[in-house]
Amino acid sequence: AGKCKIIITTYQTDFIACYKIYKDIADYILMPSENIAKFYNLQSSKNLYIGIPKYDTSFDSKFQIIEKHKLNPDKKKVLIMWPKSRDLHKFPIDIIQNFHALGWQILVKARGKDPISVENEKKLISLGHKYFHDEWWPHTSQELLEVCDLVVNCGSTTIEECIMHEVPLINFDIKPE
Predict the structure, then answer these.
(1) Closest by CA position to 146, among listed 54, 79, 53
(2) Taking each helix axis from N to C terminus, what angle separates 158-165 and 140-147, rounded to the nearest 10 degrees?
(3) Which residues pair with 29 in a beta bridge?
(4) DSSP state letters, the chain
């Protein structure tokens, strides 16, 4: 039997810190694009440029997404990209109450690798807000960006997705330096 090939799949911007860990052991490294590899000075003959499959999807109509997630079709929607637990103390949590007071529907999306606390989830739901976590096909963020009017972000790569979906965003730069 021949030697198995080691193929590394990168995701979003996680490769920036991890590339050096696997570049010497990998036979191939799947990268989003050659431009990104050049920008981060990570060119290699091992790189294969395949795009980001998360973005290569056809979406249901806005109506279908609203129905699927039981959203209110008559309200403006703000998507709050919940901050990482380590950064929550820096997040202006009253922004949720402010949008609620303005009559907006609040959609809160947490990262699968850093979910919201059970206590905060129960509180959000008790106030009538919607809470979401990662589903990978179709990706939850991608669907919600199709139906929201504004995104409140906390330094995540959701910025890229907002640009692709042409959704306005407010970004709080609360990550540690």
Answers:
(1) 79
(2) 40
(3) 8, 47
(4) -PPPPPEEEP-TTTHHHHHHHHTTT-SEEEES-HHHHHHTT---TTEEE---GGG--PPPPHHHHHHHTT--TTS-EEEEEPPPGGGGGGS-THHHHHHHHTTPEEEEE-BTTBPPPHHHHHHHHHTT-EEE---BTTBHHHHHHHH-SEEEESSSTHHHHHHHHT--EEE---S--
pLDDT value of position 44: 92
| pLDDT for position 31 | 87
The pLDDT tens digits for 41-99 are 999 999 998 876 666 555 668 899 999 999 999 999 999 999 888 888 888 888 999 99
First to last CA, the chain: 49
User: pTM of this prediction?
Assistant: 0.72
Q: Which of 79, 99, 84 is nearest to 159 (CA)?
A: 79
Task: Give bridge partners of residue 95 from the DSSP assignment.
Answer: none
pLDDT digits (tens, 9 = 90+) for 109-164: 988 778 888 888 888 888 889 998 877 677 788 889 999 999 999 888 888 888 87
Look at residues 82, 102, 75 and name the one whose alpha carbon lies nearest to residue 156. Answer: 82
Half-sphere exposure of 177 (CA within 13 A, CB side): 0
